[in-house]
Amino acid sequence: MERAVVQITLFGLLLALATTQLNKGNWDIYSFHINSTVTSRYATTVITSRVANRMNESKEIEFQVRIPKNAFISKFRMFIDGQVYDGVVKGKEKAQQQYTEAVSRGQSAGLVSSVGRTLEEFKTSVTVAAHKKVTFELTYEELLKRRLGKYVLQIHARPMQPVKDFKVDVYINEKAGINFMKVKGGLSTNVLATAITRTQVDKQAWVYFYPTEEQQKTCDSCGEEGMNGDLVVVYDVNRNPSLGDIKKSRGYFVHHFAPSSLVSIPKNVVFVIDQSGSMHGRKMKQTRIALLHILNDLAEEDHFGLITFDSSIVHWKRELVQANEQNLESAKKFASNIHERGSTDINKAVLEGVHMLNAHPREDSASILILLTDGDPTSGVTNLEQIQSNVRMAIAEKFPLYCLGFGFDVNFDFLEKMSLQNNGVARRIYEDSDADLQLKGFYEEVATPLLTDVTMTYNGATNLTQTNFSQYYNGSEIVVAGQITDNSIETFTPQVIAISVRLAPPCTPAVIFCGRHNMMMFSDTNAIVESNGTESDSHIQRVWAYLTVKQLLEKELVLSGSEKENAKKQALELSLKYSFVTPLTSMVVTKPQGENTDVLHKPKEGETPEEFRPNAAGGQAFSGRRSHGGFPGKLTLPRSHRFLLKTENLSLPLCFDVTGDVRLKLLRHPNRGLSVNGDLDSVQNGGFRRIVIHLKADLLVDIDTREITVREGQTLSIPKLKRGAYLSSLTVIRRDKEIDVAAGDTRMVILIHEKDGNEFLWPILRQKPLDNNVSGILGGPTIFMSFFCRASAVDYSIVSSPTHDCWLMSAESALQRRLDDFII
Ligand SMILES: *[C@@H]1O[C@H](CO)[C@@H](O)[C@H](O)[C@H]1NC(C)=O
Ligand SMILES: *[C@@H]1O[C@H](CO)[C@@H](O)[C@H](O)[C@H]1NC(C)=O
Ligand SMILES: *[C@@H]1O[C@H](CO)[C@@H](O)[C@H](O)[C@H]1NC(C)=O
Ligand SMILES: *[C@@H]1O[C@H](CO)[C@@H](O)[C@H](O)[C@H]1NC(C)=O
Ligand SMILES: *[C@@H]1O[C@H](CO)[C@@H](O)[C@H](O)[C@H]1NC(C)=O
Ligand SMILES: *[C@@H]1O[C@H](CO)[C@@H](O)[C@H](O)[C@H]1NC(C)=O
Ligand SMILES: *[C@@H]1O[C@H](CO)[C@@H](O)[C@H](O)[C@H]1NC(C)=O
Ligand SMILES: *[C@@H]1O[C@H](CO)[C@@H](O)[C@H](O)[C@H]1NC(C)=O
């Protein structure tokens, strides 16, 4: 078989691809899953898209998804016709050769390009024979960064067409405990809000997003092309007041340090604002608005300075002054009169800002220099390296420089390098209606310094990521990872030394030692958690690799000569070892060329049972029936089943018991003619043995653990439905351990659990109908089901079935109705 090669690269580079006009109507994305697992802020997301070519000729099928910019792609595979095509990460030059060859043969190539503020688009395509299927699977990894007191996991969903089997599953596992969790983003609003289920128990949280096909067409910003938007999960973890948490596994550790119960350090801040001609119009106006907000937020013990510049410098005042009411009033007057004119002398302006800070030494304070500009230096010193060198010498590591690049004309590389050389960061401010909020938001991140001169030391560890930080701000987090030399807890001793404001003893509870000159030491051997469990063992090592590569890439930007080459070499080696697609590497995907014409599993179209997974899915394909052992011979007492009722306001969920062989009303949705009943299993050690769904008068779906039967009207009977059915008003999808049922605005997942060799069913409402008239055990408040257990209840609404403590009460009080109302 001939093979073509496609390269996925972070830099689109030289080649303008001929955009293939794809005939979208001819292929069908029949399944689209996004699965994101976050463990200790490290998110691994897998996007799986299954596509069928429904035509009787071969078609080029496209896979196009958006992922966060901060993430590294670590895996891409395609399954076509029994073959797996794995992407291989290679050094850029090596991959480039194959790329060029493929393109010269006229073959298409995949690439990653930047879209909007936070996303990158990954695109590739493959030719699929008539009536064949392809599965695309993309994995990316990202260390979530804490900003303004929260972590943000952004999931972009844009399958390009409505998809019958669409779902997003998010699982968060944080040893420190989850403090709060919210679901935001365009996809969490209005008509889609009911498709989101969220569960949070102490250290774990789950978010499920299961919109029905109907909803995918009718939501905001959705249309015939289906959904297009973000699901954003925002959360924070509980804080240990001292050293934070340190996780250790297989010779690697990661340390999250974010003490919160500290006193803020007064700051000396100088704003250097570009007022050159290019700031004309909205940019200047937004800058004025942002400045006014920022001035309002200064604390009285802060000192500040304000200079504007074009080809010359305008001082509000020549030195820093206290942020008292009178000075703020005067500064606001000055700020509201900033107007654009002239050219851009960045060198002079920044050096003047440095001079002002240097001339204003103040004990127990944190100095910060913030530059806002929208263009290249055009007057005074214009040689970029010269400016960087001047600024670096003037600052001499005494305080951080933050550069805000406004709009797209700005030389962002220059600003980024200058910030990194001076312990700061650069941020792009997008020219948009919310630019003033972006400016203000950035300022808020650095508004509350809590520590300066933070030095993290780890005896007994090596190959550490960055350990010295000039400042630590409230709402942020310092993360350090490394390798433990001697794999023994006794010799591994982490410690943090930093400077804070002077406090009267006994300082704060966070600190175990207060030295002279407000030096603080944080140390706590209890903070170390050895991870021995089943949870992805390699994940701490990957956090280390991710951080190391990110920091080496930054170093490469700042260094020169052999040091630069060395940083680049190390970053490349690690990227290859951990299979990260970084700016130094590319992913090469080999794919089939031409079509293999023998059709072994040509799927039958129409009403007959259909295969919903390609045979090519290899390990993912269904592997026959699960075992379902016989009935135990001996008589048993009727079983009690414990139901769990989760309410957001109570610290513990409620639970109640139902005993005996009963049929329960699970859901009544009269306006849709939908009703769902479940038979509890009174003999076996299980939950429901059978669930029956009626839709209107003529459609019935009968589900047990072994088979699904669909009856439509008087005539059609489909026994032993293995994979699923797509009927006009109802979709049933059978996956490995769950059955997904969607009807109009309702979507239900029935999990198949196994206990002691017996299988049983657990229904969960993933998509609550909007209608108030819905009733039944699932139709009331958020209710989840659980199986009886003495001291607690097992939550079978979650695949991994965690155990919760609960308040046991009578069914009547929990449901606020007579139990008989739910029994048929
Ligand atoms: C999601 O991914 C995790 C980790 O790979 C896996 O354990 C889990 O079963 C997946 N969940 C689903 C719903 O596929
Ligand atoms: C494809 O199907 C159409 C309509 O069913 C038919 O007219 C056409 O000849 C078919 N083409 C091939 C290549 O079989
Ligand atoms: C830091 O932020 C937290 C949460 O936003 C807040 O409760 C606390 O008061 C802040 N600390 C200081 C010193 O401002
Ligand atoms: C540190 O990492 C480098 C390469 O990543 C490796 O060669 C070296 O052995 C590591 N050092 C230790 C002490 O493990
Ligand atoms: C970190 O700071 C400490 C103390 O200020 C210093 O001794 C050490 O050399 C610094 N380390 C790095 C890597 O800069
Ligand atoms: C992990 O270690 C803890 C205590 O150190 C122990 O209780 C637990 O059983 C261990 N888990 C596994 C999977 O070994
Ligand atoms: C739960 O709390 C929210 C706000 O905190 C409130 O609006 C809601 O009524 C409460 N629900 C119950 C059942 O008490
Ligand atoms: C809800 O049901 C009641 C009777 O069961 C009916 O009177 C009412 O119109 C229904 N409401 C809606 C919105 O369908």
From TrEMBL:
Residues 268-446 form the VWFA domain. It is found in: Secreted. InterPro entries: ITIH, VIT, VWF_A, vWFA_dom_sf. One of its GO terms (cellular component) is extracellular region. Residues 604-631 are annotated as: Disordered. SMART domains: VIT (SM00609), VWA (SM00327). Residues 13-142 form the VIT domain. Belongs to the ITIH family. This is Inter-alpha-trypsin inhibitor heavy chain 3b, tandem duplicate 2. It comes from Cyclopterus lumpus.
